[in-house]
Amino acid sequence: MSFNLLYYVAIILFSGLFFGKIVSKFKLPYVTGYLIGGILIGPSVLKLVPHTAISSLSIITKSALGFIAFSIGSEFSLNQVKKSGFGVIIITILEALFAVILVDLAMIFIFKQSVQFSIVLGAIAAATAPAATVMVIRQYKAKGPLVNTLLQVVAMDDAVAIIAFSVSLAIAQSMNGSSGSFFKEAILAPSIEIFGAAILGIAAGFVLALLSKKASGEDQLLVITIGTIFLVLGLSEYFNLSSLIACMMLGATLVNITTNKKPFNLADRFTPPLFIAFFTIAGLDLNLSVMTSIGIIGIGYVVFRVIGKLLGAYVGAKIANSPGNVQKYLGLALIPQAGVAIGLSMIAETALGNNVGLKLKTIILAATVIYELFGPVLAKIALTKAGEIKVS
Predict the structure, then answer these.
(1) Which of 82, 134, 235, 362 has its CA 20 to 30 Å from the CA of residue 103?
(2) Which of 22-46 are b and which e, b meaning 16 or more Cβ less than 10 Å from the residue's Cβ?
(3) Taking the complete model, does pTM exceed 0.90, yes or no?
């Protein structure tokens, strides 16, 4: 029997809410409960929401990621960036590249995989999912140096991952003779995607600041804010730009050219059901059957990526002379990996067009199940040990 799409949305919301409450009894983050709820009601277990409905819910996923990026952008006030200096940039580059290099070397020399496969899988290792981390920070109202550094790092991490992936994929394609111009594929395309998105976000930020002054009342301001975020998401998709970077720059521009915090506050009041739906839908997409095919190579990817993130974050924070708690615990909060990594794996599957692409996507999907279930828990542990979550 096929139900109306709104029926499935209702099931998703109630399931997410219920399992979020359940896991909170065990001192786990709500987001872990949302993911578990999605897995249980999805095609892998109870089949309450079928495969055919999941693809129709992509607008919720895209919208939630837009609001998450907008929220992260609000942390990029120039005053805060000046305080951080180049430290955050150093940390971001090293936590991403250490993961890339360790996965590359492990795949080539330990697991004896082809260079083509290894460098693309290694590049995807750079990506970190900001959504789960942001949700943990919000739930526990975490504050402090670690949170400030973490939000800035996950905001820039997407750009580093896209660049690393684009270069690695171009090299991999050249190995099987399917590459076009290296300059076009590895430099020009990612540059347009990243800088075009930044320009779009900055322009939209100025427009939102101007329109927010003309809004009469909070209702109109909420409509203008949501409309602007949706417009940026739509234009990003149309012009094949990074929607995460565009929405992040929208928030960053707004926070730096106006003292009006109402657009951010109103967006925060709008997003709770959107985020519950987003993470529960992410659970629907986690196909447990891929876990059986992950194999020793997949386990190696998970382990060496984690080591790379931990080591890179520590070294970067040490060089940046960050506070001790940032050096110790930042890497733990950078473990989650989801949307961007899955998207990059799908691009790789299409571009490589053979068993290499399929094998790569299977490993990323299986690793996502592990990272998304345990990542939020590790993020909470890191923030608690750093003293930025008040233990009740």
Answers:
(1) 134
(2) ebeeeebbbbbbbbbbbbbbbbbee
(3) no
Task: Note whether residue 302 is domain-resident.
Answer: yes
- Residue 378 near residue 334, CB atoms below 8 Å: no
Q: Which residues of 116-135 are buried (b: 16+ CB within 10 A; e: fewer)?
A: bbbbbbbbbbbbbbbbbbbb
Give the Å distances, CA to CA, from 359 to 131, 311, 362: 26, 27, 5
> Is 11 within the bounds of a domain?
no
Q: Are 3 and 259 in contact (CB under 8 A)?
A: no
pLDDT at 98: 95
The enclosing domain of 234 has a CATH number of 1.20.1530.20
**Within-domain flag for 194:** yes
- The 10s digit of each residue's pLDDT in 141-194 is 888 888 888 888 887 787 788 778 877 877 777 776 555 566 666 677 777 878
Would you tell me how many other CB atoms lie within 10 Å of the CB of residue 281? 25
Calculate the alpha carbon distances from 28 to 19, 20, 32, 136, 379 in Å: 11, 9, 7, 10, 11
The tokens for 78 are 């120039």
Kindly state whether residue 144 falls inside one of the protein's structural domains: yes
Taking only the tens place, the pLDDT of each residue in 185-222 is: 667 777 787 888 889 999 999 999 999 988 888 999 99
Q: Counting Cβ atoms within 10 Å, is residue 372 exposed (0-12), middle (13-18) or buried (19+)?
A: buried
* 21-61 tens-digit pLDDT: 998 888 777 877 888 898 899 888 899 998 888 888 888 88
Nearest to 75 by CA among 135, 152, 137: 152
pLDDT of residue 201: 95
What distance in Å separates the CA atoms of residue 115 and residue 83, rounded to the nearest whole number? 41
| Residue numbers of the domain that contains 187 | 61-274+294-385
Q: Give the separation between CA 369 and CA 338, rounded to whole angstroms.
A: 9
